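To fix ideas, we give here one paired sequence and structure record:
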Amino acid sequence: MPNNISIKCFEIKNTELEKEKDIKKNDTISLVIDSTEGKIGVAIYENSIQQLNFLEQDYKLNKMNKDLDTVEIINYLIETYRPNDVLLSSRMDFDLKEFIETKLYQQSRILRELEVNNGYRKPVLFSSYKVDIVSIKHFNSKKLNDSVVEVLKKDNDTFMNENKEEIDNDKTSLIINLELNRQSATKITFGCVSCILEFLSINSTNQTLTDNTNNNENDETNQHFFQFSERNSTTTILNNLFQYVNIISISDDTFTMDEETIFSLQLLPIQKTNYQKSMVGCYFSMYELLGQYVKTDLGKDLLIKWLLNPLKNVDKINKRLDFIENCINSYTDFSKLNSLINKLPNMKKIISHFETGKIHHKTWLNLYNYFSVIFKIEQFFANNFEEEDDDEGDKEKNEVINEFSSLISSLKINSLTETILLFLNIEETFLENKIVIKDGFNSKLDEYREVYNSMEDILAKKADLINNQIINHLNTNLKIAVLYVPQLGYLISMTKKVFDPVFLDDSVFNFSLIFDTDSHVYLKNNIMQEMDSQYGDIFSIISDMEMELILNFQNEFAKIYKNILLKSYDTACKIEVLLSFSQISLKQRYQRPVFKKSPNDKWKTSSLRKH
């Protein structure tokens, strides 16, 4: 790193009120499900990160046991995404509504206990949830579906034209695939996406998608959506409504568990007795035990998903175990890497704020802190991880570390930090609690700032000029002052004690009254009007220019670096959870389980034990 760049972390403190706002704001997760012809379609919208999730293609249900297969899929979706708004098509079994409500209640209770007992705070707190049966007309309406296609195609074309670099290609290809196959492979899922877009568009008007709507009401609802489609631009649909597009993976690699199993295995914290609370160093759940060294938001979320959806694919289990074993055997200082990852700010929030046009100094400080931590991680890799041998096994054992190291290298932290420091005065931003653009970034802004900084002298000179005119004309010193008031411009101020209304009729001064207070009057004259023309509303000009520069910089930054930053954060949090497993295994002297195939071709494993 160049000598003129000094990287350090800034401690950002939130008040309790700010924390509560962050938790409660935009916390809705909506799940839409439809099933027909032996297939199921799904769409999910996560409002807190503005992510639209859907199946890559409709999922084919097991012919022999469709109901059980459907229940397992819904179980997986609820435990993985934890929705609080669920819309089921009227083609689905009505008993599923009761099952989902029960499942949501169970999840709500589990997460509340987790919050109370372990201080875990999720953006989605299940204070309320609802499950509705929705008419199939909201999935199959040709007008509605055609409108969705028209909007997506129009916005997707513009999106591709605006982003010719290889940015968001995944997002673009997923949308194209959804459109092209809406009559075949993605037919049901596309209906779910249409329904969820309609739901989002009318949600603010307190309308509902229920079966008791008549045809006229249906026409009104569709008309409302058509108006929504017409009035929303590219940025609204693809950049404001959902920033991210993701494929929902319903794989056979994991399985789900009911509440009784979760409770019996003590996977998540439960209400502790006073005696249990007094026991220092004791853990009463797998989450508390295995998550001792997991601090990031995404890492905590990932740990819960892994606990509630454990792997049953032996190869993938062994890959995780390889990582843990390799850390214990080869890297004595891996706890330092874990502590570094613990300090990573939430990159998903940072990128989301950039893309939605939210301007806040904490977002920029968090971004800078992210790079400072990544830089330290890069140094850690350089000092602790030697080049891998060509041995296939060694490469496989360090697959996640190699991927993360490669991502960090491709970020080019030095040049990235230089770019930010050319734009942002990081020290002043931290001290003043506002974004401060660095001098020299924009010459026009520098000129306006120079004028604004010398405004006190300019105003004093104008006040002396007017005072001299008054002394020459009236032979008295009224001790007037010249002020600059944003939005009102430049004003002459004098006390009411010395003000005489006849001044307004004096052609020498040409005063006009702007407003008055109990103690002062505020006037304009030709000199003030000249200042208005010469300098303008200087503070507002600077503020508008700064806001425009910040927004442009944020947009360009997000376009170029979004994908790699999000991927680096995801990988880092995955490593954080695995490193926590490694430290616990070392501390507790756990032995690696051994998988063996029995004669009937079933896997058996030795129990996890100390040695």
Notes: The domain at 452-539 is CATH 1.10.1420.10 (MutS, DNA mismatch repair protein; Chain A, domain 3). The chain has 25 helices and 13 strands. The first helix runs from residue 16 to 24. The two ends are 45 Å apart (CA to CA).
